[in-house]
Structures are given as structure tokens and as C-alpha cells.
Amino acid sequence: MVRKKGGVKKGKGPTRPPKPEPMEDAAQKPSVWLPGDAMEDGETLQYDPTVYDCMSTLTLDWPSLSFDLLRDHLGAPRTAFPHTLFMVSGTQAATAKQNYLAVMKVDHLGHSKAAARRQKEAEKAAAAAAGGDGSDSDDDMIGGSDDDSDAEDEEETAQLHVRKVAHTGGINRVRSCPQQPHIVASWADTAQVQVWDLSTQLAELKDEAGAPPAGSQGKVHKVNARHVHTHSSEGYALDWSPVAAGRLASGDCRARIHVWEPTQAGKWAVGSPYKGHEASVEDLQWSPTEETVFASASVDKTIRIWDTREQSKAMLSVKAHDADVNVVSWNRSTTYMLASGGDDGVLRVWDLRQLAEGAFVANFAYHRGPITSVEWCPYEASMLATSSSDNQLAVWDLALERDPEEEAALAPESNALAPDNLPPQLLFVHSGQTDMKEMHWHPQINGMMVSTAADGIGIFKPYNV
To answer: According to the UniProt entry, which residue ranges have a biased composition of type Acidic residues (predicted)?
Structure first.
């Protein structure tokens, strides 16, 4: 984001015309806006659509606090546009009975105009490097000539297909089982965790081509949950094990954690609570490699590592933040790395081999509001993303280091130079959504990200990720 002057200043009862503002120097560079910076009268944030390969938004009848992306049958990794993705989301409706789980397919996610132009330029450059100018063959590959730019830049319109499943109570968190994506768990504000089989809804969406049938988007279907467990209070922490199929963990606002074990009868046996935290358990993450190990984050400012073979106490514990720890994420590529985000707006990265010493290996105090989500990239071990109530989604690459001379050499005359207090590991910032709650990387589409906020769901792919 850069900012520039714009709009008209307003005042009460002016008696004389305002003084003309001095002309801006044409060579003056724009300034970079950071969260918390003050905005002067008449200043606006300038959106740059050229930094997205893909950008789409969608809304449901009600806001959503949580969603999950479903692994699908379309293969991985996939990069060719247009894309199709499947997801499940939970609503926060005006009344308990108006809530539902939304099982969604989004298809025809196409290249942005800017991305299409970048692709064409890259193909021309490749052809020129191979010994030709690339003018004719490249135009044929794109589907038009330079004189047909309107057709060339035409974007596909993403199409939303929805099946709604009735759900009593607002949905605080929803998670899909990685081994069986049609099995979904929901955490409700009624203090109930429920497990659902959404295979029928997913099968309908997979077979649905073209525009959705009339009436299919609005109807709310009644489905009985496969299993229901009532905690002593409501909660938010919920995670399926990526190693032990069907194993689930849930944590509540009274500091209790339950581990669910699947049974042969298609139900779950919910164990007695793990106790140790002194305040609400906000998030849980199973180890990506060890089936008995999981991490927890709490309002008591700690992160704890548990082993299901020793329920009486945590194996490790560290005071992780100076405020509530809201979220944690376990690196699935470098499995001794854990990331955490707190109410203090700080992102921290931990080496589990040194967790007992209480020293983090990275600390970024960039956000100006509580961090609401953190997640490591599934295919790039050094990359992760955070979302925050400051309405920012930030992508980080821990492998990046600042080189001021290279930055100055590569920066166009009209581009803003990075301020000294901008972390060099900050790779991309997405904004434009209000009260951002949760983000996820798509597990099968490289670079595709989805975020949910009070005003809808954003689906996008940054050009540099």
C-alpha cells in the first residue's frame, strides 16, 4: 500500500477560499503506509491490482469467523489457471437457529489482467532469448494480438456454488479432517463440538457444472451430526491430527483440553480433560510427524507441548508473549519450528529443541492489533502468513535479508523505498478486508490464499509468492 493526496477537505462555514496547495514535485516518491500510521485529511490508501495474479471476493448471508480449505481430487501441486477450490465455513448469524455450515465450491478463478500481461511479457522474453522476437507465436499462445488487448485482458468471473447445512449456535471454529475431508468438526458458542459427514454435499458440488441450479444456494439442509460432545464452556481450539487419522483435539475457555479417539462404530471416544493451563485454551496444533504430540496456546500467555501418553502434565511450557497467545502453527516441513501470535500483535518463531530455555528465534512486532491467525506455508519451509485485527494479512519469508544497495538499484523512480523500520522478511501485505479473523494457504494450489473477515471472504494469489 502507498498513500497519496486525494479528495476534498471539509470545513464549517469557510469565509474565504482555501490557500492553493503547492504543486507536488513530479519526482517525489510516494510514502509507504504501515499499520498505526496516522492519515492526514484528504489522504487515501492506493490499491495496486498489479500485485495479484488472482483476486476474488465472496459473501454469505452472515459473517464467518472460521473456515477450512478441503483437500480435493484435482491434484497437487497445481498452478494452471483457472482454478477450482473447495472449502467449508461456519456462520455467526443473528440468532442461533439461523446458523449453518456452508460447503462451497469456487470455480473459474482466473488470471487477473495484470497477471495475463505479465505472462505474455515473460513468454515474449523467453522466445526472444531463444532466438526469435516472439511477437507472433506468443500472441497465438495468449489468444489474441496486441491490437486485441480487450479480449486478451478479459477476466473470468469466479462462480460460487454452496450447500448449506443447518447448525444450532454460532460457529467459532471449523476444521476438516485431512485424511477424510468430508468429515468436519465445528466448535459452537453453545459449548458443543460436533462432527459432521458432509460427503453428500461435496459430491453434489463436484458434479455441479455451470451456474448453480435455481434455489440450490438458499436452501438449508438438515443433517444429523455424527458425534456431539458438550464441554463445560464454549471454546475455539480445534485440530485434527495429520498423522493419526480421525484423532481430534478440542480446547475450551475453562482451560480444558479433550482428545477424541475414533471408534470402529463410527463415533469418537472423548477422553478426560488435560489440565495445566490457567486460562482459556485458544488454539491447538498436532505435531506433523508424531501422532501423540500436540501444542496448545492460552490466554495465560503460555505455549505448552503435550504427549497423550502422559496426560497429567505438559512436557514443555514457555511464557510465549506478554499478552494472550491466540494462535500457533507447526511447520510441517521443518518440524522443530513453531510460530505463535498474540494479543500484543507480535509474531514469534520458536525452535522446539530450545523451547525450555524460553528464547524465540524470531520476533516481529509489525501488527498494530491482535494476531488472529498464523500459518506456515505448506510448500515453502521459510514462509508463513499472519492475519490481524488491524485489517492486514502479512506474508513473511524468514530467508530474506535486507540489501539496501540492491533495493535502491531495483526500485523504479516512481516506487516507494522501504522505510528502515520495515522488516526485510515482510514479503507481501494484503488489506481491504475489515476485522480479519482467519487465513489459510491452499494445500494444493501454490501461492493461493484465502482469508475471512466480518465483511466477507477473500481469495487471492500474490504475484511474488
So the answer is: 135-157
For residue 181 the three cell numbers come to 475431508
Distance CA 191, CA 186 (A): 11
Q: Is residue 389 part of a domain?
A: yes
Return d(Cα 451, Cα 74) in angstroms, integer. Answer: 22
Residue 364 lies in a domain: yes
The grid coordinates of residue 422 equal 520495515
Ramachandran bin of 300, using left for φ above 0, alpha for ψ from -120 to 50, beta for the remaining angles: alpha
Q: How far apart are the first and last CA of the chain?
A: 17
Q: What's the confidence (pLDDT) of residue 167?
A: 98
pTM of the model: 0.86
Do 393 and 244 fall into the same domain?
A: yes
Separation in Å, CA 357 to CA 6, 163, 361 = 51, 49, 11
| Residue matched to cell numbers 456452508 | 102
Q: Does residue 84 lie in a domain region? A: no
The string of DSSP codes covering 291-327 is TTEEEEEETTSEEEEEETTBTTS-SEEEE--SS-EEE
Per-residue pLDDT reduced to its tens digit, 281-322: 999 999 999 999 999 999 999 999 999 999 999 999 999 999
Total domain count, the chain: 2
Domain that holds residue 245: 234-400
CATH code for position 303:
2.130.10.10
* Bridge partners (DSSP) listed for residue 340: 328, 348
* End-of-domain residue from the set 348, 370, 400: 400
284 backbone dihedrals φ, ψ, rounded to 5°? -135, 145
Q: What's the grid cell of residue 143?
A: 489468444
- Residue 88 and residue 68: Cα distance in Å, rounded? 5
* Same domain as 371, residue 263: yes
Residues 249 and 388 reside in one and the same domain: yes
